[in-house]
Amino acid sequence: MTATPRENLAALRQAMKKHGLDAFVIPSADPHLSEYLPEHWQARRDLSGFTGSVGTLAVTADDAGVWVDSRYWEQAEHQLAGTGIGLQKSGQVAPYTEWLAANLPEGATVGVPADMLSLTGKRALEQALAAKNIRVAHPETLLDEVWANRPAMPSETVYIHHPDYVSESAAEKLARVRAAMKEQGADYHLVSSLDDIAWITNLRGNDVPYNPVFLSFLLIGADTAVLFADHSRFNADSAAALKAAGIEARAYAEAAAALAALQGSLLVEPGKTAVSTLAKLSKSVNLIENINPSTLFKSMKSDADIAHIREAMAQDGAALCGFFAEFEQKLAAGERVTEVDVDTMLLKHRSQRPGFISPSFGTIAGFNANAAMAHYSATQESHSVIEGDGMLLIDSGGQYWGGTTDITRVVPVGRPSEAQKRDYTLVLKAHIALDETVFPENIAGPMIDAVCRKPLWQAQCDYGHGTGHGVGYFLNVHEGPQLIACAAVPNPNHAMKKGMVTSIEPGLYRPGKWGIRIENLAANMPVEHPAETEFGKFLYFETLTLCPIDTRLMLPELMSDEEIRWVNDYHAQVRSRLAPLTEGAAKGWLIERTEPLTRG
Predict the structure, then answer these.
(1) Most exposed residue of 151, 154, 299, 332, measured as fewest CB within 10 angstroms of its CB?
(2) Residue partners of 62: CB distance under 8 A and separation at least 6
(3) For residue 1, what pLDDT is reported?
(4) Would the CA dihedral through 183, 184, 189, 191 be positive or negative?
(5) More confident residue, 365 or 379
(6) Which tens digit of pLDDT belongs to each residue from 60-73?
(7) What's 400's DSSP letter?
(8) Which residue intervals of the chain bear CATH 3.40.350.10?
């Protein structure tokens, strides 16, 4: 029988006492500082009962809390009720580091698993605790003592990214990384982040839900490269690909010994490298700390990549036409449809499209009040039936050989209210405002966030999440280094460059009532007429996502002529691109939903 969060809390405190700890912290992390985690590192979720993908659990002898951002406040409030673990709303309360400093005595000891804490995270924690001489320790066995039936390490097969969709060989990518290493004076470069490793090697895996990556470390030298991932996981094609790229394969567990023997200078990204990974590194090694060069290279898709992404978007859009046609048909026939059914139906239609591999994240299907939880997840045990009046928010995506998709649409159910339509129109206006923006090449993404929020701010509304995140190429649905978020402090790594694919997803959430988000993916493309002015080069957003935005929820009287023209131009493009890929009910739905919007 699975222990309850309250029972886990008691066991955790008993183990803390045994290990001489005054507090214990469990971040949402693994040795690769991944956003989506293998089951083996889902300790925070399993011990606290809060199932959101991001959060930090901190426990003392007489108090406990989970720190989560605004996307998860409603969800966490429900799931943590009665557990003895409090909800800590990030942005409204002190960070967990300051909370520990305020609540622990002088000279206390805080435990954190070394494989769940980055170098950057440890320094921030130590700095916050320094005034009270609070020590940070890394007990190796504590989690295993309290986490019954901890899942095993994943060991899925590693396979090659289909050659038809690869525009640059692994050897060529390694050459670019080595050139960047040389510029920084690094003899070696350790890559811990799994999507960077998958991109460099042109390999993919299934170790992490929704992300086609595999557990590994990659150590790159001036003329060597070693991939630490167990040999048994490679099939004939992936083993041959490694050999062709000059990459040696060793066991995952051998990475620590290889690093212990290292001499010279080592380039690492401190926010993406776990404390445990460098625990045995010789003090004589000169650590060079900077962003992984591959993170920037990976974000700037080639023209060939963009062409494949356009095709993946078309296939995804055709799948969505089939889904929405079936969904509306079921509702019209009076059939019982739940939020869980939405996920099942989406997977069915996407699975029928060429090149589809898997979903790119867990579908968010929220009806009315459930949509106010930005990252709501319906389950068999807890979901709503889609009936009556209101709006359904669907945020979903797919992994294709030629790209990764992420789209959010909101559709009416029954007779939505005027207030709901007003909010929807405000979000649409915000989306259009950013989509139409022309901006200087290399401007930091956070600096254009306000462009999107302006229509909402003018109505004294806002949303708590970022406006945009980078998206991988048959890789992680969330990738950096770029982002569009007013809460982020701009830095050079946030520069918007040609070929980057970024989401545009403003929202508006009314807790207990409804939630709205309209999301497309867009590529940063160069303005060509003129290609350059005395003020430099400029970029624009090429909309990649192809799916109608429901006009039944729009209030044209709140929209400018230019905004109505944007909707109609977008729908003309959607119809043109998707009509050849659809038939029957799906095509009928597409034609109906792309009829021009008018003021009449």
Answers:
(1) 332
(2) none
(3) 53
(4) negative
(5) 365
(6) 999 999 999 887 88
(7) E
(8) 5-146, 159-298
pLDDT for position 148:
85
User: Which whole number is the average pLDDT over 408-413?
Assistant: 99
**What are the DSSP E strand ranges found in 375-528?**
390-396, 398-400, 403-404, 407-413, 438-440, 468-470, 479-484, 501-504, 507-510, 514-517, 520-526
φ, ψ of residue 122 in degrees (nearest 5): -65, -40
The encoded tokens of residue 51 equal: 């199932």
Q: Name the one residue in this structure whose structure tokens are 């400018």.
A: 560
Burial category of 68 from C-beta neighbours within 10 Å (exposed 0-12, middle 13-18, buried 19 and up): buried
pTM (2 decimals)? 0.94
User: Both tokens of residue 310?
Assistant: 């356009």
Helices (H), 338-392: 339-351
Tokens 């009416």 correspond to 412
Q: If 0-12 CB within 10 Å is exposed, 13-18 middle and 19+ buried, where does residue 168 land?
A: middle
Q: Which residues contact 446 (CB under 8 A, 6 or more apart)?
A: 483, 484, 485, 486, 487, 488, 489, 490, 494
- Class of the domain covering 300-592: alpha beta
AA letter at 377: S
CA 579 to chain centre: 31
Angstrom distance (rounded) from CA 122 to CA 219: 23
Q: Is 311 exposed, middle or buried (0-12, 13-18, 19+ CB in 10 A)?
A: middle
Q: Are 184 and 447 in contact (CB under 8 A)?
A: no
Q: Is CATH 3.40.50.300 correct for 5-146?
A: no
Residue 111's contacts (CB-CB under 8 Å, 6 or more residues apart) are 16, 19, 21, 23, 24, 25, 136, 137, 138, 139, 142
Q: How many CB atoms lie within 10 A of CB 67?
A: 25
CATH label, 159-298, candidates 3.40.50.300, 3.40.1570.10, 3.40.350.10, 3.30.70.870 = 3.40.350.10
Q: How distant, in Å, are the alpha carbons of 14, 181, 590 from that of 22? A: 11, 42, 60
The encoded tokens of residue 473 equal 């190429």
Cα–Cα–Cα angle for 205, 375, 66, rounded to 5 degrees? 95
Residue 271 tokens, joined: 């926010």
Q: What is the pLDDT of residue 2?
A: 77
Cα gap 442→203, rounded to integer Å: 30
Write out the DSSP string of 13-45: HHHHHHTT-SEEEE-S--TT--SS--GGG-HHH
> Which residue type occupies 470?
G
